[in-house]
Amino acid sequence: MEGVREALAVGGMVLGALFFVAGSVGMLRFPDVYTRLHALTKADNLGMGLLVVGLSLRAPGWQLVLKLVLIWIFVMIAGAVSCHLVAREAYRQGVKPEQGGER
Question: How far is 6 from 60, CA to CA, in rounded Å?
Fold first, then answer.
């Protein structure tokens, strides 16, 4: 049973790290500020959640799990607020979303 728990913990942490990498690649590859913000916030929030799940499975007590969940919630709130502020400022400055099509 302990081996399964450890495997799930490591799997969650590795998947979380992969989502962080995917969000970073999206930030570098996507064409405009709006899609970059989308890539960063969605992938990073999911990556953070998977990291919290992985770390929670290895936590010695529920107090640490509660702290990890609270950190995840605060990171999601901060990410949503900062994404909204950046997108609103870009919109106010007249930055248009990139239209589809090949370059």
Answer: 13
